[in-house]
Amino acid sequence: MRMQSISNGTDKPDLRFGMQIHDLTSIVKGQNFAVFDSAEYIGSICVEGCSEYSRKLLDELTEFVKKPQIGAKGLVYVKYGTDSILKSSV
pLDDT for 47-57, tens place per residue? Predict the structure, then answer.
């Protein structure tokens, strides 16, 4: 996945908000999960305070990252809620 900044046209991620992209490709690829096994790049971000996002909002975010300007094929999420329960889209 190529990072783009829409405002200034560079390929550098915008780190002003502390959401660094972590490369998980070598960790999750080859673990018999077809979505990751076929991916060229798997990146992650940790977004504090968003564990209570609704399914509708997560679906909207998934559609957003599929836009050509972003370039992702989809979104897999793992939520660690205030109830200490993990919830995931996979």
Answer: 888 888 999 99
